Prior knowledge:
The chain has about 300 residues and is mainly beta. About 5% of the residues lie in helices and about 60% in strands. It is built from 2 helices and 17 strands. A 12-stranded antiparallel β-barrel has the order 1-2-3-5-6-7-8-11-12-15-16-17. Strand 9 (about 200) and strand 10 form a beta hairpin. The relative contact order is 0.20.
Amino acid sequence: xxxxxxxxxxxxxALLASTAVAEDLEPRSYANTPVxxxxxxxxxxxxxxxxxxxxxxxxxxxKIRIKAAVFAFARSLxxxxxSGKFDIVVPRAHxxxxxxxxxxxxxxxxxxxxxxRFRFSVNLYGAPALSLAxxxxxxxxxxxxxxxxxxxxxxxxxxxxxxxxxxxxxxFKPELGIxxxxxxxxxxxxxxxxxxxxxxxxxxxxTASQDPLHQVQGHIIYAFGNGVWVxxxxxxxxxxxxxxxxxxxxxxxxxxxxxGTLTLPVNRNHSLKLAASKGAYSRTGSEYDGFAIVWQYxxxxxx
Length: 303
């Protein structure tokens, strides 16, 4: 078994595992929210898909499935008079992957934590920080916001294994987003780039590096009233080539996905969110179908 092609396979699996940290199709990231409200979220997601390797890699029939339970906490903030938010997402997952590599079967079955994500966001324009009472008179027009998401190397990681749930490195994802309200319809567009530090304890005592991964996502959201809304979502990723000890794996990523989201309020404090997505195109990497269900509890801020 040669290390370089296997490393490319491992990188594709790791990319899919890391998407379980948070939805890559995430509508309403820059909506205005009354200050001081807390959110507790419990979710379950199931992703099932295939791994596409570079044609030079003798990899066939790559399959992967990840079942994840997610705990998250968020709080809306007053950031110098503008609305903002801080959130933390902690996922625990079971990953099962298999493939034929050079005609020989390869498998990985592992359970553990995925690297947690911390994110701070602020609405720079069009969404002032408001109390719950003041929010009753707020009407959205255009919102421009920015965020920074950081993943920490705290997930399951075994340097003696090629495929892990954690990546043993930090990542930093700055994002800029815009949201425009047109009656019951809201249009959203966001662009981001994820930067990665090196994993200096990769399989075999080597150093694994990854180029920045660029993303654009868009959403069309329709609000029915009484807190019910539905969204059509799409996203495009490009970049993220990996290398081992400075030798490239020729695994430039290019992926398009689409999906939908439905939020249903149960009462003033509780709601359910259902989401599903599907891979439309993948040049190299992972193409998968997924669904998620999330329960949300809101409290504080005068609710």
